Amino acid sequence: MTTPMITQVHPTEKLPTASGESVSVDVELVPVIRALQALDLHTLMCCQDVGEAMAGGGMWPLPDRWHTFLSGYAWLKMPVDAAQALLAKLSETPEFESRLTAKAPGGWQSQVWLGPTGLADYANIYFPREQIPDLTAALTA
Fold first, then answer.
1. Residue 13 pairs with which residues in a beta bridge?
2. Contact between 12 and 29 (Cβ < 8 Å)
């Protein structure tokens, strides 16, 4: 079985990682990633609109229902401890304390995958793309 070709769907900017590597980050998420780096919160992957990326070939192949479900949602993949620290920080802000649940209007969805050997060591966090500026402001306040 061959690995499918993944296309870069969104414009990117190169950012340095803590280890000195250079990685491509979707331009709308650059301020968020810089703010997370300043707080020593590491990310593994990100996307400014994961549904759009899935539909455009920028993610692994998934059924179309996922493209639709995640359209308009940004995505952060983070080590679990960093994701917990991010959510704890945001829970202390008036703008985000009510958004950190999928039940809220404009709410966030976060998950840690469970497999046959246990929980993954990373979390996926999905939030409305339109909240990227608010997130940047909350992280840099």
1. 25
2. no
Which single residue is written with the structure tokens 């593994």? 44
Tokens of 84: 């917990």
pLDDT in tens, 52-76: 777 766 565 565 656 566 778 899 9
The predicted-structure confidence for 4-14, as pLDDT tens digits, reads as follows: 556 677 889 99
Cα 17 from Cα 27, distance rounded (Å):
16
CA–CA separation, 27 and 3 (whole Å): 26
State how far the alpha carbon of 64 is from the alpha carbons of 31, 94, 104, 132, in Å.
30, 35, 25, 25
Q: DSSP string of 21-83? A: -EEEEEGGGHHHHHHHHHTT---SEEES-HHHHHHTT-SS---HHHHHHHTTEEEEEEEHHHH
pTM over 0.85: yes
Under a CB-based contact definition with an 8 Å cutoff, are residues 74 and 129 in contact?
yes
